[in-house]
Amino acid sequence: MGKILVIDDEKSIRRALKEILEFEDFEVDEAEDGKQGLDKATSQYYDLIFCDIKMPKMDGMEVLAALQTEKVDSPVIMISGHGNIETAVEAIKLGAFDFIEKPLDLNRILVTIRNASDKSNLVEEKKALKKTVQRFKGSSIIGETDGIIKIKEMIEKVGPSEARVLVTGENGTGKELVARSLHDNSPRKDEAFIEVNCAAIPAELIESELFGHEKGAFTSAVKQKKGKFELAKNGTLFLDEIGDMSASAQAKVLRALQENVIQRVGGEKNIKVNPRIVAATNKNLRKEIDEGNFREDLYHRLSVILIHVPTLNEREEDIPLLAEHFLTMTCAEHGIPRKKFTEDALEALKNTNWSGNIRELRNIIERMVILCDHEITGFDVNTFSNPRA
């Protein structure tokens, strides 16, 4: 269920907590003083830390303060046989999740563990949500052309299922937005949405990013790290640019999809995972398979459902809708009074060659909102963009 560190100089307390926690299926690590506990807590990840207050070498308050300085995310529960209200308040102010007095009460311990676990899940989800909100702020799948209507209908049908989806299309067409919409229309919508850009991560680090690593697995692995498969938990894992994944990582992803089990880099323990997989690529994976760059068995695992996102040039009639959307959003983000397009500006946008697709359209509109006067004209559009030949 998770890994817990118990820091206490009393062997009997460590033994009692270890027995209780192991009975609840937790993996338990021990430290006999504050210094040893701090070293362990900063070198690997723990789901929860129990820390005594009165200890040699380094007392619990000093450990707690050091954990905050080192930005250790694990919830810390302070325990003491000499507790009082002032001590408890000080511990909470320093960042402790809770304070429990000795002798330890079994029910209190289990309730506190459950509450701390709930908080940790909320923190992870909040972090993922903040990133998502920044990327998708004010966004939805906008458009009324046949291709976009078909995508919306497909999301409505496929979203509630557990089917894996492969989204294809050129860079900047909105594949990530399709993945997010699938997640938002699924039973997993309240769980995490985790993204991995397989093209942006060096081949030698992709396995650590996906599956995590143990301390000492490689030179820079100074502490244990959970991978994206674990962080996605029961949510959605979006594997962007899957066509750029190394052969070794492809083999491990295939195993994870077949068995719902992973192993961290440098580890031997099997870890159960259950995220829904949505993958995306701008490559022709059939061609990549023929050239020996992509595993055919992995392709079939990923492509239960195929969704192709058209280029912006293929959905010319959607450009005015998208332009107005990005205009409104950009003015709000920059605190600029609402501007407007002239009719010839909208026509010029439709006649532009959007090689960078929606991403390019958004960037150019942001540029014009900042640099142009109250109206954005056709001349402005032609100045900042690339008209079609």
List the helices and strands and how they pair.
Elements lengths: L1 E6 L3 H13 L2 E6 L2 H10 L4 E5 L7 H10 L6 E5 L4 H9 L4 E4 L4 H31 L9 H13 L6 E4 L6 H10 L8 E5 L8 H6 E2 L11 E2 L1 H5 L3 E5 L6 H13 L1 E2 L8 E2 L3 E6 L3 H6 L5 H7 L2 E4 L10 H16 L5 E2 L1 H8 L6 H15 L3 E2 L1 H7 L5
Parallel strand pairs: 1-2, 1-3, 3-4, 4-5, 6-13, 6-14, 7-10, 10-13, 15-16
Antiparallel strand pairs: 8-9, 11-12
Could you describe the 3D structure shown?
The chain is an alpha/beta fold and 389 residues long. It folds into three domains: 2-120, 3-Layer(aba) Sandwich (Rossmann fold), CATH 3.40.50; 137-308, Rossmann fold, CATH 3.40.50; 313-384, Helicase, Ruva Protein, domain 3 (Orthogonal Bundle), CATH 1.10.8.60. The protein has 16 helices and 16 strands. It has helices spanning 11-23, 34-43, 60-69, 85-93, 106-136, 146-158, 175-184, 206-211, 228-232, 247-259, 285-290, 296-302, 319-334, 343-350, 357-371, 378-384, and strands at 2-7, 26-31, 48-52, 76-80, 98-101, 165-168, 193-197, 212-213, 225-226, 236-240, 261-262, 271-272, 276-281, 305-308, 340-341, 375-376. A five-stranded parallel β-sheet has the order 2-1-3-4-5, with helices on both faces. A hairpin with an 8-residue loop joins strand 11 (261-262) and strand 12. Helix 13 crosses helix 15. It is elongated. The modification 4-aspartylphosphate is found at residue 52. Keywords: ATP-binding, Nucleotide-binding, Phosphoprotein, Transcription, Transcription regulation, Two-component regulatory system. Pfam families: AAA_lid_14, Response_reg, Sigma54_activat. GO terms for molecular function: ATP binding.
